[in-house]
Specification:
It contains no helices and eleven strands. The protein has strands at 2-7, 10-13, 18-26, 32-39, 46-51, 58-60, 68-73, 78-83, 92-100, 121-122, 126-131. A hairpin with a 6-residue loop joins strand 4 and strand 5 (46-51).
Length: 132
């Protein structure tokens, strides 16, 4: 089992920044690709960003590309999402998720699935509210 705990959410004005963190505990973090997803009221959960175990591969949804940055620090089992130039449409509950890439070819460089149902573990979410 992997336990994920998000933190860093809050209320911010449009144009502001927030940094979300996700701390993992439990079994080894090795070979887990990590992703951030978000879900706004009445909408489906959507992919935001993904990062490989190695940290060398990242990718983003078009809606956040150029504004958000995902990073990870395997030494202390944490993943971060730096969010800049926030917009009201970024308002949502943000979730951290882990996908086991063990057995995949080049598992270290696999940056995670775009689809939420491919992930094995989830955090409880943290609310981000951007006011206009």
């Amino acid at each position: 089992q992997v336990q994920l705990v998000e933190s860093g959410g809050g209320l911010v004005q449009a144009g502001g920044s927030l940094r979300l963190s996700c701390a993992a505990s439990g079994r080894t973090f090795r070979n887990y690709a990590m992703g951030w997803f978000r879900q706004a009221p009445g909408k489906e959960r959507e992919f935001v960003a993904g990062i490989s175990w190695s940290g060398s591969n990242t990718y983003y949804s078009d809606s956040v590309k150029g504004r958000f940055t995902i990073s990870r620090y395997n030494a202390n089992d944490t993943v971060h999402l730096q969010m800049n130039s926030l917009k009201p449409e970024d308002t949502a509950v943000y979730y951290c998720a882990a996908e086991d890439a063990s057995g995949m070819e080049k598992a270290d460089d696999y940056s995670g699935s775009y689809f939420w149902f491919e992930y094995d573990y989830w955090g409880q979410g943290t609310q981000v509210t951007v006011s206009s």
